[in-house]
Amino acid sequence: MEIKFADPLDEILAKSGPSALFTMTHEQELQFDLFRTRDWRRRFEAISSGNTGKHNTYHHCVCVDQQTQWPMYVLITTNDCDLVQSDAHTSTQRCETFVEAQALIYQLKEDLFGQTSNRE
């Protein structure tokens, strides 16, 4: 499965812009997520190595909100692997490919739905 960006600007930012987070739109396209990028950088900038380069590395991640347990796909674009982290708010798991991340999300959602349906 090929990654689709919502806009050519999103793809340019992903490839050669500053470290950032991209999330899926309802149309299943990746879009630069300004608010999550700001939050993420504030939470992890202190441990960042500051390693930057001309071209970003794509980190296909599944981020799980610790409060709701809801998983979501996040593309983290950076050359600084220290920015791909977990903390008290979010559990982050890096996957090798977009397809692998989608399969993990499917499994986590199935598990979550199973847990909530067993409560009834």
Describe this structure in words.
With 120 residues, the chain is of the alpha+beta class. The protein has one domain. The protein is 34% helix and 26% strand. The chain contains 3 helices and 5 strands; from the N terminus they run αββαβββα. It has a 5-stranded antiparallel beta sheet with strand order 2-1-4-3-5, with helices on both faces. The termini are far apart. The model has no long low-confidence stretch (mean pLDDT 87).
What's the number of structural domains?
1
Global structural class:
alpha+beta
Unreliable residue runs: none
The average pLDDT score comes to: 87
Share of residues in strands = 25-35%
Shape: globular
Strand runs, count: 5
The helix count comes to 3
Our measurement of the CA-to-CA distance between the termini, rounded to an integer number of angstroms, reads 37 Å
Order of helices and strands: HEEHEEEH
Overall radius of gyration: 15 Å
**What does the main sheet amount to?**
5 strands, antiparallel
Biggest sheet, strands in spatial order? 2-1-4-3-5
Which percent bin holds the helix content?
A: 25-40%
What's this entry about, in short?
This protein has 120 residues and is of the alpha+beta class.
Descriptors:
alpha+beta, 120 residues, globular
Fold blueprint:
Blueprint (H helix, E strand, L loop, with lengths): L7 H9 L3 E5 L5 E3 L1 H11 L12 E9 L5 E8 L11 E6 L2 H21 L2
Antiparallel strand pairs: 1-2, 1-4, 3-4, 3-5
